[in-house]
Amino acid sequence: MTVSIGIDTGGTFTDVCIFDAEGRLTIYKLPSTPDDPSIAILDGARQGFAAAGVTPEETGYFGHGTTVATNTLLEGRGARTGVITTAGFRDLLEIGRQERPDLYDLQVEKPPVLVRRRDRLEVAERLTYNGTVEQPLDIDAVREAVRLLVERGVEAIAVCFLYSYLYPEHEQQALEIIGQESPGVYPSISHQVLAEFREYERLSTTVVNAGVGPVMAGYVTRLKEQVQALGVPVEPYITQSNGGLISLDVARELPVRTVLSGPAAGVAGARSVAAAAGLENVITFDMGGTSTDVSLISEGAVQIGIDSKVAGYPIRAPMIDINTVGAGGGSIAWIDSGGHLKVGPRSAGAVPGPAGYGLGGTEATVTDANLALGILNREHLLGGRMAVAAGAADAAIERLAGELGLDPMAVADGILSIVSVNMGRAIRVISIERGYDPRDFTLVAFGGAGPLHAARLARELEIPQVLVPTVPGALCALGLLLSDLRADFSQTLTRPATPDALDAILHGYSQLEAEASAWLDHERVEQERRRLRRIADIRYIGQNYELPIDVPGGDLGEQTLAGILEAFHAEHDRSYGFSAPGEPAQFVTIRVEAVGLVPTPEFPEIEPGVGTPEPETTRAVHLASEGRTVEVPVYQRETLLAGQHFDGPAVVEQMDSTTLVLDGQRVEIDRYGNLLIRDERS
Amino acid sequence: MTATRTALDPITVEVIGSAFSSLVEEMGTSLIRASYSTNIKERRDCSTIVFDAQGRTLAQAEHIPIHLGSLMGLVEEILRRYDLDEIDPGDMFIGNDAYTGGGTHLPDIVVLSPVFFDGEIVGFVSNLSHHADFVDRGHAHIYQEGLRIPPVKIFDRGELREDILEFILLNCQVPRERLGDLRAQFAANRLGVRRMQRLCERYGAETVKQAGGALLDYAERQTRAGIARIPDGTYRFTDTFDCEGLGQQELEFQVAITVTGDEIQLDFTGNPPQVRAGLNMVWTALLATCYYAVKIVVDPTILPNAGMYRPIHVSAEPDSILNCSEPAAINGRTQTCQRVVDLILGALAQAVPERVIAACTGSNSGITFSGVDPRTGEYYSYLETIGGGFGARATKDGLDGVQTHVTNTSNLPVESLEQEYPILVERYELASGTGGSGRQRGGMAIRRSVRVQGHQAAFGGSTSRRLSSPWGLEGGLSGGRARIVLDRPDGSHYEDTGIPTLLEDGDVITIQTAGSGGYGSPSERAAEQVRLDVEDEVITAEQAREDYGL
User: 3-class SS at A178?
Assistant: First the structure.
């Protein structure tokens, strides 16, 4: 086996993860370079290769996670874009769903419209609900619109006509005209971006794709050259929002698919770590400095959602169902006008940072609460690389306690309670609200702060087990080595779920599968590594939201239809608490998910041991359950051996994270070095 | 852990408060996703709520502020009508009637379930959906407006009362949708009951109860703190009200608001008597509207519970349009509610001008079409309410084309509605020049044109601000007015109350809602901003010249 490298560019750190031919894992972490992310990528690659003792030429696989598209959108740095749309609908982008973003806040603003009204041009054309042409496309008007927009200096043009997913010809004609009139402009065509109904969401997705397109195209071109110059013989793959990887070409054409990819690699990493440990049902809990991402994996499958918003802009694309909370280690605790303690969403960020970092911060953060309670090391963090100003953390907590008239330890503990409840709410959304009981899952905790809060959160939700991977701080980079190539193909095809419709449905699947195969060919995926999966979005006639149901491959007969419908009724019952088997149902959108399996490295096992390990030292930790301060054993992660176990309360320290184990919980170290924390009380 | 604490500190209260919010949000998600009709699924015209054992609101997940009026009404009615020993676990009540069932208009059907724990009622959970039914009706009095459902048990100790359900469905125009939506409502309540019981198992019923009480006190403190920041005094405001139901008549509305320390009194004495049109507000609708208006001015983050109501005092004469009595018709009461909010903001502008906004679109402009779909032969009913201008703020322009104040329903995707109804949308756009000029410009209105396809459709249109304009503040000018017009394929043209109630194939209805008022003198607006507005056709060249002097 050759060398695999994963490089994840985060907001603060760029993480590098290398598996060499012998299956050895090397992790390297360096600060990101936001102005030009490639500096850290190339430095990281070079130094990572050196640290692993391999050469770039040995690389057989290069996975890359980037936030280029996300940041472009969040920072409003997208390319200047024009829109061409059906006559009568130029303001659709601005009206959206006509809701205001907040019910009660009179000062609320809608996110800035990505395209000025002047640059949203209408052309005569109209299709109807069944895809027939009501009014043909005015070709001259399109040509004129393209010329006008180019004259005004747009770099990208988004085209979205009503019902284009049923009859793409009008949009295809517009695309041709754009190519003829101005080959330099980046085209984004709605039926290519998303062949599904709901015009506003499709338009919004198409416009976002247009805006980030030119930026992504530039990034991808540079990255390709630089990686080549480094001597790496393969092209990098890029993570997309559905957790799979795509080639640079696809990323250039459909950059919107990478907009929500940030947390996706971490989920893929968590999934693989859990699978290796024999766990198929897990909730991922990725807590960093300013935000936390949670998602659910059921029977080994990552849950995929379709609708999301980034920076207030609706994006409809297959993406991991990740729920993000604006709270992390740097979140600030404060008292509101009614005298209640609140945590976040304001964060101390990297500067000034938590009070306890001694960089000038004075407000109490979640990290300060952990320091005050003694859960975090009060002398130094990052394996000794960073000194801690515990006194400043205590002072910040005491100030809050004074205002509340409570004991400082109770306040510090209260901050953690509130964080736990907020995280718990986020997890309820992706579990209970989707019909899953968290008590049937294992919590996989990672990110710098995940392992610190996981034990408490698990108890809050009665999750019976927590898994802390060996490299909680670099799981995203690891995930890049463990993700498969993946693309989704879809087509809205509304038909009653009756035997009469099966020919049309089968024909639709054949077309999508042909597209999927063409993509797999393009990605040069060997036949035995290809996986195609059919999914149908089904609803009861009259409903307006669909449930995704698996559809068997091959021919579709009455028997298969009966099976599909049975699965639909069951899923409806699981999701909403009732089903109506007597009611007619309909197909709405059919999907094909194409996967190219990437050869994934084996996880290295750690040295075996027996019994209870010796703690490195002890530390005074204030435990809320005891209502007092207790001397708690502190273990060093690197010294723990497979098969060993110990009981809480305990603290486990390692360079990139700290794990807290509560009273009544027991830790076991598995053969890969994962910490498995179980509650002995329940 | 929190469960082991004895005294109820603010942290435990916060934790349990968060659990209440989580509970109603979960009910809301379940309700929206499982419902059948577009009005709930796409437009989210529904709300959920949890009450304590006394019927006081603990938390709500309202998508539409006016829904509070119906939700708080039903629990009061039930506690008045039923002794506690007549209520059993597994019971569920249903109601919609404004005079006996706690509703504010008949399409809003509320279901309510008691939550039992250890044999005691520890609270109630409830949800409301606006059923797009009871359409094509008269509005002289409530008997014309649809089926009146008093508070009755739809579930008796867990058993669905099929006879009651059948009785209700027989009186609905689209029973299949109603059944699907009601099932989703029932399921959402059952979920809420389970969640509330879990909460009691976890923390103990007594702790949950105490936390509920503390949360009410907390919201009260927040509200008082906000009111105290308004200078003491009495502030009056008057405005005129119009709507299709009143023909060309205009009514004079008035309010007198007195702020004394941390309490506020809203007095609506002297408003017109109730009218023979579906525009009257019942008492709980007025309360919900006042709570909304006070909240947006004093502190939008106040916890949505009954503690907030305590420092807010409302008075209005019975039998008046703002506090009507049986048998006044009420179907279009949000038209009136919207203008009550404007009234309150207009009065408070004298006290805290920087915290209020200019008049919004001032209406819950709606169009309804019903008939037999020629493609399926089935009866359909299509309701859509259309947003407008959101008033300019002291330092920000208003919002263009949004739902305002007591409503926030979303639109229906064109690609969804044309599939479902025999209707074609010709235009859907912002109406240039309808935002009131000002240093801060008012938000633009929406214009929507829809064509009837291949059948006869019964039509109803309702909007306010046809005869008066949404006012500006501090020198800002008023915004554009609303109008509904009909254009027939033969070239004939009808407006306003002249539009026939039965439409033919090819008829095009165009509704343009009202814009909103500007804030501050237009002469203070940056010239560059005016130039951009002209380029983007947000304002007309004429406005640029005459209002802004460019």
Answer: helix
Distance, CA of A337 to chain centre: 35
A495 and A405, same domain (yes or no) = no
Contacts of B166 (CB under 8 A, 6+ apart): none
Residue B484 resides in a domain: yes
Instruction: Give the A:B interface size as CB pairs under 8 Å.
Output: 207
pTM: 0.89
Of A401, A420, A439, the domain-final residue: A420
Domain count, chain A: 3
Based on the fold, state whether residues A97 and A201 are members of the same structural domain. yes
**Residue where a domain terminates, one of B181, B197, B221:** B221
In a domain, B321, yes or no: no
User: Could you tell me how far CA A498 lies from the centroid of its own chain?
Assistant: 37
Query: Nearest CA to CA, how far is B80 from chain A (Å)?
Result: 31
Q: What is the mean pLDDT of chain B?
A: 93
A189-237 tens-digit pLDDT: 999 999 888 999 999 999 999 999 999 999 999 999 999 999 999 999 9
| CATH number (domain holding residue A150) | 3.40.50
Interface of A with B in 312-341 (CB under 8 A): 336-341
Which pLDDT score, from 0 to 100, does residue A125 have? 98
Residue-wise pLDDT tens digits, A305-352: 878 888 889 998 888 888 888 788 889 999 887 778 889 888 887 678
**Residue range B455-468, pLDDT digits in tens:** 999 999 999 999 99
Beta carbons of B36 and A543 less than 8 Å apart = yes
Does residue B434 lie within any of the structural domains? yes
Q: Of A36-40, A48-52, B387-391, which gets the smallest average pLDDT?
A: A36-40
Tokens of A601: 């490295």
Strand partners, A485: A245, A596
Together in a domain, A519 and A393: no
Tens digit of each residue's pLDDT (9 = 90 or more) over B324-342: 999 999 999 999 999 999 9
Is A129 within the bounds of a domain? Answer: yes
Residue B84's pLDDT is what? 85
B413 touches chain A (CB under 8 A): yes
Find the domain containing A354 and state its range: 331-420
Same domain for A507 and A589, yes or no, is yes
pLDDT tens-place string over residues A84-116 = 999 999 999 999 999 999 999 999 999 999 999
Residue A591 belongs to some domain of the structure: yes
Predicted confidence (pLDDT) per residue in B114-162, tens digit? 999 999 999 999 999 999 899 889 999 999 999 999 999 999 999 999 9
Beta bridge mates, A331: A347
Structural domain includes residue A142: yes
Chain A residues closer than 8 Å to B426 by CB: 88
The per-residue pLDDT for B3 is 37
User: Rounded to an integer, what distance in angstroms lies between the CA atom of residue B160 and that of residue B171?
Assistant: 18
In chain B, residues with a C-beta closer than 8 Å to the C-beta of A410 are 9, 11
A184 assigned to some structural domain: yes
Chain A residues with CB under 8 Å of B225 CB are 337-338
CATH number at residue A525: 3.30.1490
Q: Please write down the HEC assignment for all residues of B267-332.
A: ECCCCCECCCCCCCCCHHHHHHHHHHHHHHHHCCCCCCCHHHHCCEEEECCCCECCECCCCCCCCC
Q: Does B2 reach chain A within 8 Å, measured CB to CB?
A: yes
Residues A82 and A179 in one domain: yes
Domain finish residue from A578, A596, A614: A596
Cα B444 versus chain centre, distance? 21
Edge-to-edge strands, sheet with B57-62: B57-62, B46-52, B120-130, B108-117, B92-95, B152-156, B159-160
Q: Do A391 and A497 sit in the same domain of this protein?
A: no
How many domains, chain B? 2
CA distance A241 to A319: 4
Report the distance separating Cα A75 and Cα A112, nearest Å: 11
ipTM score: 0.93
